[in-house]
Amino acid sequence: MTGAARATEDREPVIQVRGLLSQFGERVIHQDLDLEVMRGQILGVVGGSGTGKTVLLNSIIGLKEPEGGEVRLFGRDRAAMTKAEAEAVERRTGVLFQQGALFSSLTVLENVASPLVEHTRLPKATIRELAEMKVAMVGLKPEALYLKPAELSGGMRKRVGLARALALDPELVFLDEPTAGLDPIGAAAFDDLIRQLSDDLGLTVFMITHDLDSLYAICDEVAVLADKRVVAKAPVAELERSDHPWIKEYFLGPRGRAAHKSAA
Ligand SMILES: Nc1ncnc2c1ncn2[C@@H]1O[C@H](COP(=O)(O)OP(=O)(O)OP(=O)(O)O)[C@@H](O)[C@H]1O
């Protein structure tokens, strides 16, 4: 069953953002921004550079306090959560940051194990076993376990970041430009992996991307950030018919047309 089929079958929202206001000083990044992401959905998030995609991600995961509005995760209002509730949400959530954010002095195994060390009291041997499983799950060979991030290619680093994001068996993952910097073949392989994980594990995915191929290949819906809010959220095929100038340029410009063609 595809994520889209699951999403319509089980309409429980995992992320709900209502009337979000985000500011840095006087500078308003989001105003009256609404967004809902359903369980099992892969949502692509697009928008011009500086429209606030990463700030939105940070506001949802609690790295940035909103100046107004409401963020609900798994039905709970983030602002009203106790510390224990926020920690429980953190355990159900994985994040792959834009630069991978791996610890450079730790091996692949230690990087992937770090959320398990931080959030569980499992014995060392179990943590090791679980981390090894995640490394295998993202398609890395056992030889990679003892390498440090500097010894890995960009694509391998992304996979390690994904393995770490999946360490606690999250229900929801946030990916900030996961295929940026990968060659087209590496990017397509990474897309397949995310789609497969979503289908197999029922993961909900919030994915910021500039990669049109990813949008066509794996996203159930795409949210477009412009004018400080989400101006559209729909399957790509529907967005192609939008009248919004940025969306038109994005999907119907030469790169958009090429991605459409190769997905067809
Ligand atoms: N800590 C901060 N202090 C001040 N301004 C910030 C901070 N973080 C982000 N901004 C500003 O918020 C705006 C949105 O930034 P953000 O990184 O979310 O954009 P983006 O849509 O993810 O862009 P890109 O596609 O280029 O990664 C930018 O203008 C940025 O300068």
UniProtKB/TrEMBL annotation:
Pfam families xref list: ABC_tran (PF00005)
Domain (ABC transporter): residue spans on this chain: 15-252
Claim: Nucleotide-binding is one of the keywords in the record: yes
CDD domains: ABC_Org_Solvent_Resistant (cd03261)
GO molecular function: ATP binding; ATP hydrolysis activity
Keywords: ATP-binding, Nucleotide-binding, Transport
SUPFAM superfamilies (UniProt xref): P-loop containing nucleoside triphosphate hydrolases
Entry-linked PANTHER family: PROTEIN TRIGALACTOSYLDIACYLGLYCEROL 3, CHLOROPLASTIC (PTHR43023:SF3)
Protein name: ABC transporter ATP-binding protein
